[in-house]
Write a sequence for this structure.
């Protein structure tokens, strides 16, 4: 593969929505968690983790990251 080729610059992130779907997002540039959530139309109601860690929405996603989205569960009376 040539250095600087599109494939080499591509960032691939796995998006997992618990109980619904798993998909891969591919972009040529690094992108933030907020930008991908906005693109997917996610604006709340989900707990979001990257590689198992709670992170800020400003977190820059890198190649191989896994974003897990889980519906927030309300408990109590």
């Amino acid at each position: 593969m040539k250095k600087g080729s599109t494939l080499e610059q591509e960032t691939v992130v796995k998006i997992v929505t618990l109980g619904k779907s798993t998909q891969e997002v591919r972009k040529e540039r690094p992108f933030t968690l907020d930008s991908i959530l906005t693109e997917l139309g996610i604006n709340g109601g989900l707990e979001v983790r990257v590689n198992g860690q709670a992170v800020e929405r400003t977190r820059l996603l890198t190649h191989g990251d896994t974003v897990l989205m889980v519906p927030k569960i309300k408990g109590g009376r």
Q: What stands out?
A: The domain at 6-71 is CATH 3.10.20.30 (Ubiquitin-like (UB roll)). The first strand starts at residue 11 and ends at 17. The mean pLDDT is 84.
